Request: fold
Amino acid sequence: MKQTGDLNLVKKINKSIVLHYIRNYSPISRARIAEQTGLTKATVSSLVNELLESSLANEIGTGESSGGRKPMMLLFNRTAGYALGIDLGVNYIRAVITDLEGTIVEEYKVQHDNTVLELALVELKACIREMMQRVPESVYGIVGIGIGIPGISNGQGDILFAPNLGWTHVPLQQIIEEEFGIAVVIDNEANAGAVGEKEFGAGRDAADLVYISVGIGIGAGIIIKGELFRGSSGFSGEIGHMSIQHDGKPCRCGNAGCWEMYASENALYEAARNILNTQKIDMELLLTLAEKGEPAVIKLFERVGHFLGVGVVNIINGFNPELIIIGGRLAEAGRLLRPTMLQSLEGRSLPYPRERLQIEFSQLGSRSAVLGACSFAISKFFASTKVSVE
Amino acid sequence: MKQTGDLNLVKKINKSIVLHYIRNYSPISRARIAEQTGLTKATVSSLVNELLESSLANEIGTGESSGGRKPMMLLFNRTAGYALGIDLGVNYIRAVITDLEGTIVEEYKVQHDNTVLELALVELKACIREMMQRVPESVYGIVGIGIGIPGISNGQGDILFAPNLGWTHVPLQQIIEEEFGIAVVIDNEANAGAVGEKEFGAGRDAADLVYISVGIGIGAGIIIKGELFRGSSGFSGEIGHMSIQHDGKPCRCGNAGCWEMYASENALYEAARNILNTQKIDMELLLTLAEKGEPAVIKLFERVGHFLGVGVVNIINGFNPELIIIGGRLAEAGRLLRPTMLQSLEGRSLPYPRERLQIEFSQLGSRSAVLGACSFAISKFFASTKVSVE
DNA sequence: TAATGTTTGTAAATCCATTAAACAAACTTA
DNA sequence: TAAGTTTGTTTAATGGATTTACAAACATTA
Reply:
């Protein structure tokens, strides 16, 4: 209870409401905003003028009359600034620049082994420097940098633990902010993916959704009432280590029969090794074999699809989300996984929560995390005040 | 975005802040409230006076001086009104009256077979009438009625589906409101239990907690950031039907190897039937046998404890709550279940999320749901506006 | 073409909760 | 007794939103 109510707060609330309408329903007139929000025309006028002054909105000329004076239409100025999003993978760094609506204007990807912290930081900084040179001219320049990481972060921008990189306790936000003097946001790769899909992908209309990133392992990003749920200590979404076979094979995490031992890239490759004699097994190989109609390989995918469904049912029954989005590397095989996944889903889930559930594969593909990182930066830029009133 | 900012809102926010301080830190002086909240003394004075006028706070005389004028101490007037909470079980109706702080002042329980809707409604109304006669005199009288039900409700106060009662689509809120003219809140029994423990029990200091009600089946109430999470269509918490054995025994829900087939009252009884020759197996019998040191019966409890742990690990890994509270009938056997539950928990959970997790058995016992129901009523009374600002 | 009514956006006056500053009362300490 | 502190109220100022009024721009209709 630090924040109290005063006139300043009132203005921030209303200004963010007006901006919200301009961002989401533009082109829109002052009169229409007043009508929709319940604010008076005078208030809207005053706030819109401030937004015009700060270049966040533009007037783009008159619109259609509906029997009276023509309205002056307002447009969100999506190029008032740009966001830099980075997906820091285990063996690559991917970066994009988007405008304030999340449209990609620059993209960059480099293969790099990031397991040595010092080298990774050098590469990361070089990448950021490169992107900063590519940013178009604008009023605000880069409004923030968002970074998705394959690990757990606390709320203060420190990486606590990144198992696949071997990093612990890296104050990444601080390091990058000090280097570039720009606001930085750090979060988990699955969380970033969830936000990316929520803002720019398959989840735009859902308030409660779970994004499941199926790669080497399984991670999840959980969005509740439109907001990311990070868990009490940032560890929500380790759902790959949910056991679906209590006496199953032991996992390195301590548990037995973990979901990701049945339904992940690793699970797929391990099963493939028992069938194929090839040395190098990877996604491309398996996909091409499946395309060719190799029945044993198709069976592999079907089996993984089945187990995907088993875990998804558990999420549905515990969480009752509106939407489940499946992303990550394995989502590339969506077409092969879908039938058996839906089959085990139909057979196993409770009818009521199933009824309203939508389940989709990622729309943004490998870009969901990096776009989510951009969204973090944009949100921080706008969310000087985020207010919810019930 | 219906609610906009105006002076009215500012006042509501600040008034609820002041009331919050009086409710939680009384006895407290105006000066201390001003200091803690950041509001000016003048504002606090004005708002406090309104609260005094509406009988929600009282002055109880001067306190200790700290080197100046003695402060006038304020107390929350917990007896300004009363809440009626009802736990509508499958074969009982339990009701309590509490003051505005949740202290029980009247209690009532009746055995009744509620599976026939009409009969249950008659009994429920009779119960409410009975309790209304027992309410102490007060300014506001009964401020609301909260009802916990063994089923799913939508947000509008209708019971959608109550499998163990055989009810579907009962507009219970409307029925009771029309009969008594008092605000009514309906929610699931596990949700009510979660709120009860959060407000008055083991969860008072936790923001993110999961209450697991282990009875005939397993249900859960999920509290995120201090607020109940109901899922997108009210079905969150059907976590008893999370599979912990993907190829396990089929459950009537369609899934296989559901958690509640391994770790519930039913699971316990079924296992007991294979051991004991007695006709009537119930909790009391098993508990007394275990007390007597019957090794086979003790093993039964230990086994259930183990499987409780298996499911709890899944919740921890997916949700990362601060606190897990185990309630319901089976919590009565907490002493017997705890060792094996903790054992499977220690062995199976990821170290990081486990680190900060607390796990407890219910403090309120069989009263958690009925007290949560009271809390619903009290919250509705106060939550004319609930505001959160970030 | 003129009259009428509608819609849009701005301007001026008013409202009202908070803040800031001043103050009186009550109390402790030296 | 004098000086300093703390509490809580009073008073005026502040700055948002609202209300009311109004001018400009436009469509419709006669």
Q: What stands out?
A: The radius of gyration of chain B is 23 Å. Residues 4-7, 10, 29-31, 34, 41-42, 44-46, 65-72 of chain B lie near DNA strand D (CB under 10 Å from a C1'). Chain B has three domains: 7-76, 82-195+369-382, 203-363. Residues 317 and 350 of chain B are 7 Å apart (CA to CA).
